[in-house]
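Retro notes, structure queue

What went well: the backlog is down to a handful. What didn't: a couple of records were mislabeled last round, so from now on we paste the full input next to the output in the thread. Example, using SPW_0924 family protein from Streptomyces venezuelae:
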Amino acid sequence: MRALIAAAAGLAAALALVLTITAIGAPPGETSPEPLLTTVPKHP
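Corresponding output:
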């Protein structure tokens, strides 16, 4: 029973964190038009 209560408390805390971040919103700014590099460039 304690495990169920602990799991419920953890889930409630995680949900509260997600809702808080959603309410605050994304920071202002612009995204870069250049794509991100996903591999290391090869040097000759």
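Agreed that this is the format going forward. Reviewer comment attached to the example: Residues 2-24 form the longest helix (23 residues).
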